[in-house]
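Contributing new records

If you add data, match the layout below exactly. Sequence lines come first and carry their own label; structure lines follow with theirs. Keep one chain per record. Anything else will be rejected by the validation script.
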Amino acid sequence: MDAAIREQQSPLPAEPERDPYYEELNRLFNLYRIANLNTRYYGIRAERFEWWNKSFLIVTATLSTLALAVILAADPKSANARIFAATCTGIAALVSGVTPFLGLTEKVRELRNLRFAYGQLFGQIEFAITEIKRVGILSGEQIGLARMVHEGFMRIETMDELEPDQKLIDREDAKVRQQFPPDYLWTHL
């Protein structure tokens, strides 16, 4: 009886009705934007590491060529030419020895693979959203499609960088939010 009296005195607001169709579309749209953000992020990160890798190769090639040119063009008895050529060769050898140690090629490959995986996921999410909206309900097939997308995201997410570049993420996130505003799900997909 006491509970009935409390219920009459301060009725709790009714829980709003949940709509699984809209909830699932919104979850997928959130993943859609995250997949696009990660595709952008890993593409930029890969380009940066690629630039460093190419820069080291260019430095090595330039110093080696310079050393060879000095040896060929200078007087064979010139001590300064030999010292300069030896210095260039030593620096080129050091740079070419350090480059593999830094693992830039492997890092580029890893980042390119993540970019590709998130790009594939982006397309799968777009297909899932379009398919769910086309059917208009969450049937067993659409639920399976959404589940497949969520599981794919969880698998790829485990390979993400442990210490991401937060400034780059924030910059690219602003671009993603501008390109895909909240109403995009209902107006463009």
